[in-house]
Amino acid sequence: MRCLLATLAAFALAAPAADAALPVDARAPRLVTQASLAGKPFRFDLQQALRRGPVVLYFFPAAFTKGCTIEAREFAEATDDFRALGATVIGVSADDIATLNRFSVSECRSKFAVASATPATIKAFDVALPNSPKSNRTSFVIAPDGRVIYAYSALSPVGHVRNSLDAVRRYRASRGR
Fold it and tell me: Structure pTM?
């Protein structure tokens, strides 16, 4: 029931695609938090990840809900394509690390990490669902210099993976890689 209510609330309050949280060219806020990959917790630092290349940072409302499961599985299927372009994928939600440990294995297929967001993180990225501690569904592509080069907010998981991958491809093409 909780998952259904969260999904319905997110649907009712989701920002349209044109109202992505941080705009293109904004500097991404600092993000250091607990994350999980293949059920193993670790410390994620966005600045360190950006040293390796662009980062696809996608926020989702809640692990194990229908849309979030669909999105995680689609990102898992595309992880090798992102890696081939030098990009790191990380999902972010307000879920606790114990929940994300399970989600990283079952739905992310141990292909990419998921991180726990504090209320301050959700606020800093301007992805809060109104009257909720959860985030909306927003995908960002962040260039190694820390600037947002792509942002997309929509409740539906459709398009987040494909659009993020296209944004990384455009970024790489603009640099002759």
Answer: 0.87
